[in-house]
Amino acid sequence: MPIFGKSKIGKSCFIDPNALIGYPHADELKLLEKNPEKIEGCEIGESSQIRPGAIYSTAKVGKNTRTGHNFLIRENSIIGNKCLIGTNVVIDNNCVIGDNCSFQTGAYIPTGSKIGNRVFLGPNASLTNDKTPLRKEYHLEAITLKDDVTIGSNATIMPGITVGEGAFVAGGAIVTKDVPAWNLAKGCPATLSELPESLKKPNRLG
């Protein structure tokens, strides 16, 4: 299996032979030919299951991580323990993700996102960080998802948004303003209302 540079893999891990472990990021690519041993590599916590996909150098993945196929975790991102990174999920660089999260097929997490514990992203949920891509100078506005947030399938979170603890974003919603804790966001653009009492509980993750 391709394990690059000084990558560290914890005990009792399953690493698929086709996974790319510690693949050099842009600033390290020149090391591939002559000094591959100088590639920093990534860290994978013990008892993790890594299927075919790529974890870039300088990324850190916690214990008991599970992945689907064709995932990507980019450089300088830190992922907590017991997370599920589903098939075709992309986690861009410089993200910080808590424990016991579940990211379903095709979810996209852009550069600089901050995600708490027990956060659920449904299939094809999309977080964004640039309001005017390629029309103005790039200005990153990172997303923050607090603990126990649920983002439904095909929902879009616009740049700079904070979704508060325990909030629930319905499938297909387009969120254009901050969502307070324990609120429901639904519609295009999303409107806000207090969650029903039956949904005011932590996500059953972990």
Q: How would you characterize the overall build of this protein?
A:
Helices cover 2% and strands 30% of the residues. It has one helix at residues 31-34, and strands spanning 8-9, 14-15, 20-23, 43-44, 49-50, 53-56, 60-61, 66-67, 71-73, 78-79, 84-85, 90-91, 96-97, 102-103, 108-109, 114-115, 120-121, 126-127, 144-145, 150-151, 156-157, 162-163, 168-169, 174-175, 183-186, 191-194. It is globular. By secondary structure, it is mainly beta. The strands form five sheets. The protein has an eight-stranded parallel beta sheet, with no helix packed on it. It is built from one helix and 26 strands.
Q: Quote the beta fraction.
A: 25-35%
DSSP helical segment count: 1
Question: Percentage of helical residues?
Answer: under 10%
| Strand order in the largest sheet | 1-4-7-10-13-16-19-22
| Shape category | globular
What is Rg?
Answer: 17 Å
Please describe the biggest sheet, giving its number of strands, its sense, and whether it closes into a barrel: 8 strands, parallel
Query: What structural class is derived from the secondary structure elements?
Result: mainly beta
Distance between the termini: 30 Å
Q: Could you spell the SSE succession in H and E letters?
A: EEEHEEEEEEEEEEEEEEEEEEEEEEE
Please report the total strand number as a whole number.
26
Mean pLDDT: 97
Low-confidence stretches: none
Give a short overview:
The chain is mainly β.
